[in-house]
Structures
1.
Amino acid sequence: MNSERRFQPSYRTKRSAVRNLSFLAVCAFGGLIVTTSLAGDNISDRAKNLHFSSIVVDTHDDTTQLLLDSKFDLGARQTSGSIDIPRMREGGLGAIFFSIWIPSKVTGPIAVEKASQQIDAVREQIHRHPNDLVLATTADQIRRAHKDKKIAALMGVEGGHMINSDLGVLRKYAGLGVRYMTLTHSGNDEWADSSTDKAVHNGLTGFGKDVVREMNRLGVMVDISHVSDKTFYDALSVSKAPLLASHSSCRAICDAPRNMTDQMMKDLAAKDGVVQINYHVGFLSQEFRDAEKADPKINDSIAKEVTKRCGGDTNEGCMLIEGDRITREYVAKGVLPRVDYTKIIEHIDHAVKVAGVDHVGLGSDFDGANMPYGMEDATMLPKITEALLKKGYSDSDVKKILGENTLRLMADVERVSGELNVQK
Amino acid sequence: MRRRSVFLPFCSFLLFSLPLTVPAHADELAERARKLHFSSIVLDTHDDTTQRFFSKDYDLAKRNPDGSVDIPRMKEGGMNAIFFSIWIDGRIMGPPAIEKALDQIDAVHENVARNSKDMVFCRTADDVRRAHAQGKIAALMGVEGGHMIGNDIRMVRIFGDLGVRYMTLSHFYNDEWADSSTDKPEHNGLTDYGKEIVREMNRQGVMVDISHVSDKTFYDALEVSKAPLIASHSSCRALCNHVRDMSDDMIKALAAKGGVIQINYEMSFIDQTYKDASDKLSGGVVAMMDQLKKECGDDEACMGKKMTEVQQKAVAEGKLPHVSWERIVDHIDHAVKLVGADHVGLGSDFDGASMPEGMEDASKLPKITEALMRKGYSDDDIRKILGGNLLRVMEQNERVSRELRAQ
């Protein structure tokens, strides 16, 4: 879930506050990419072979919001959104982290209940589609699922507010299969500062550090997407296991606080972490951000239109899908610039140059953000493989980016967990 | 009955004809009972020890000076399978109830993990047997009160996935979808949603526990459930007329569908004289709880302690009668006479109720085996009562769950 979905009603002040920040960097290739026909429609045999033999892992998908509607069938090809079983199959997506997400402003026991409902929704889908999906909680289980030609389903909790400052709840989420937790969402929680809120904790509080230590012990990856830079550095120094940025891109290319600076990526990599590139247009393209910033009315009118189409602001699944659709309509009208999927490749390439090829992966934000042209859904994923090969990446480097880096990170986190539990 | 009629003449013969040999034979029987007890799976379906996990003064691994259950006393008493009760006050509802239940589930998991040398967490009857074969105590969980799912059927699955193996449909108060035996009926038993919850429990393999519920709720659950029910901690109303206990008709109906009644040791559930005196003193269990709640607030360990204090003081002052542990055996025997040995078990309510004299803690459990043997029960029947029956019901629930999930 991107932190500042532009169609959010304006009362969500935590999100609108972000827009007051100044954006310094210039988007390197903004506006230059005018791809009329999608190059990715022709995938070479080499890319196809490589892609479909690789374990492709996506660490962030907001499809869970759609699963809350009992009529939604993950097994049927949908006409909207980005993820369902047929399209994951077609795009060779082998492992997916379903995001457990509720807005930051929902806190307390209600947050625990709502998160539990979403965990249940994911687990129920897995039960409902035993031939296609299998719950995975370890790197080995993902590899086994791949061998069995099943899609590995995993879960990440996107926001520390969902544990209600209760380590017992964190442990139960882990027990139910959750394998990462993002320390905050777009607002600060009780123990960690967010990148899109006013700092109040100076990073992680003492309890926040305990949360990170308990996550290490449980084998739950510490996800630093969404958190403030100070929270990131605090987590980096406290965590005994490598960190994950489940869905963040490069600030050097697009100056969003949700993205990582080159220095942050280097520091993350130095401790064996991985940054999973987010496909959200507002995080990929400086030009897009600038256009948004130039006319704040755009966001308000999109928000109004979304609320109208979804009959209010409670159906998050509808709001996500309609937000993306309306954004596209604005791009078609020329109100917002068009961003192409090649921008994703640019971010991957930049991160590889800065942090090394062992430290970059994919965290799409499908079904939770505005996708660039040519990456509308999971079927488009082979284009990434094709583009990386064209750039001269080796087969083994492509495999790392597609999923092996994430699997290594998971294995590292599992090893640390094992060690900490023995020490106990 | 049959066993007993064989046994009695034999017993009279011993007592009246050869009084000098009695000690030798009694010792022999005691030894045989000991051997039987300590080779059996002794399973208790209801222990409120979970509340004590939140107290700094309590350590599951050590012998505690108060309360009834810890590992040393379980070992001493041969109790090798225990359902830790997940319980919060029935008036806490909605999301806070869910979170508090999760905290208690976590406390059980953490305490079991911390004592992995002695205990292992179990989800199935086979798990329990495996634990027994390894010489470990099998730890299980039951949620005592439907209010903890926050009126949300999905939480049945979440609790089930976390290892909860039974849920009591209500506690002392009605919840949103089931009437309690100690509250004014408002749903006429189970609501439609309550019936759906029972079906979901069947699907998840979470046993339906009808202790605490109103008679109508019991009959509704019995009709809806595809798997046998349990009464995790209830005794016989024929011997002690308490709404928390089961009438003979109810016990018969429960047994007819393969269920099991796990006898509760609470004095006011097993002894009519005590119950009558206690009612006079405190105005019944709910009124007493209300009073203690005022004194202890949310500290459940304090509640337990106070309850015992109040009760012991009243007994000392002669306001409450003494109750012997043998009343437990009377209840077991009554239920067995009524429905046979396949439908009765043990649900002590240790650490959550007032125990009769001689059954203060888990270390005293071998007495039950010996008493049943003295009554002439066969080894097989005693093993069933000690735990075999409950394991059978668990297995039946597991089978129903598999069938329903396959549909």
2.
Amino acid sequence: MNAALRSFETQWRERVPDALQAVREQAMQRFLKLGLPSLRDETWRYTDLRSVAAQSFAAAACADGGATDGGATQSGAGLLLVDPSQAITLKLVNGCPLPDAEIPLINGLEINNIGDILKLDPKSVRRFFEPPSDADQRRWALLNTALFIDGLYLRITQSISTPIVILHVSSGESTQAAHPRLIIDAQPGASAVIIEHHVSQGESALLSNSNTHIALARDAQVEHYRIYSTGSGATHLDSLDIRQAKGSRCRQFTVALGGGLVRSSLEAQLQEPGANLDSYALLVGHQDRHVDCVNIVTHAAPDTSSRQTARAIASDVSRVIFNSKVIVNEGAKNADSKQSCRGLLLSPNAEIDTRPQLEIHADEVKCAHGATTGRLDPDMLFYLLSRGLDRDTAQSLLVYAFLADVLTGMSVTSARGAIENALISQLPDSQTLRKFR
Amino acid sequence: MLEISDLAARVAGKEILNGVNLKVNAGEVHAIMGPNGSGKSTLAQVLAGREDYEVTRGTATFEGRDLLAMPAEERARAGLFLGFQYPVEIPGVNNVYLLKAALNAKRKAAGEPEVDAYEFLALIRQKMKFMQMSEAFLTRGVNEGFSGGEKKRNEVLQMLVLEPKLAILDETDSGLDIDALKVVSTGVNSLRDPKRAVVLVTHYQRLLDYVVPDQVHVLSGGRIVKSGDKSLAHELEQRGYDWVMGTKVA
């Protein structure tokens, strides 16, 4: 047993049991049995966790005084996604809601701390803690279930027009780990826009193992963003589970703009006819950042549809991985899926790996996939140069164009603008690029 | 305006141009004709500054400046324009953005201020009307989803906005129906001026009925093998390219 595993086991033994004890116990035992993922594991072959495994971790403290003094020292704070007056903002520090936080009163939105629900009505949320079908590949999600302290449970019962921003602040040392947990429960016909924004407090290098579960009931609509803009020393492991009922629609954006090591997974199940998922990933490798994104989408019912659009850019000595898999279960006829991943290398020392996969167990399905990685297209570049544009401008313009498919899909225009700005600052020739917004 | 002497070039290790000599004066329209694979497009691309085309010998000057020493963008700003045979689609880069950036790059090089946004849009609309192009053009990506004919019209539109001193049009006539050919020809003719020159690269004589050249050259095997006035184009149309193949350099 390595140091990390031993330390997580110690944390497990020291914690006070709660209403989820049986589920947590099961998750923890499975996690301990499987151990940390290694390069031998199918979806971990590009991400080496040996330095994490060699480390002992203590539980990160919940909100403390220093962490609640506003955003002045937060890395990524410059990336204010939505004007606070235009959004419902909920702040979590190391996964814990602030004890004295004011809970906004919004029609159709119930905001609860998971800790409170577990005391008052644990049955109502138990279903959100079932292990994911691919738990063996997502052991960090198991660890989150075992060790999370608190989190938020959002129940959406109507259409909410104001975006809900969940500001995840991580605060601590590299010897600490936090396990933030968020549950989004969209009731039949309800709709909302939810933006999860991950930032670091100061130079925080805490290991953050976050987990989000989105349940969309019949005809519910959710537009969900997860934006990673933690500091360059941070390790971030993030799992997202999406469960979709009949006629529900989910638009999901994953944007990697920060962190040292980022592992982002999405596991979606289209469980009833008419469920539709549109997922977008915008993965930016900068300096020595390592971004590993894994999507698994299961079509479990007939007439379900999914689109996955990923754009990866790698500069300097960064590495970006996009692994996506579509599974069509037996009987899920007329499933319609499309995977498109394009990678753009901006440095000879950067690396992009893409792997679209299909696993089809049904007849009469429509599944398309494509992946390309390369440098800027020389024909396009020559065309722009031949019109008199200088080389920097021409290149920046092409990089921007490469990202346009994902950016233009974002309905929250203020968030889109902020994301564009942050993105541009991480690309070569950012001054030039800025002029072409 | 343009003087090419003994120009040789290769593409991917293969010799394509093999000693081209050509002199184009201000106010003139020259047509370069020739069979497929004779090097017409290569000549156009080399003159515009395509980097992966390697010039192995010879010289080319543009208004007395060493053209081959200038990068593509500098040639464009100095007033050279290439109308592409296959204009590339660039989704995500707006047509108007490109035109504006191109015009401003040229103005900046000439020490002129950037174009006023309002005046620019008025200019574009006027030129679009002249080229009979639809409003959809304004919101679309560069050549994105354009038909072959629309792409060629867009090339001529860019030319009209940029008002180059020397326009090299590479098979701008190919793939056009007769109406589009007339529109494109009117566009090219509107640019004819004692201070400008046009080089038309074409496979067929058809375009030359509308844009009448001062001189016609036949390119074959990477050299100009015959030159003459507009009657040469008619003769080629009747007798075919075999007639001039193998002829000594004119």
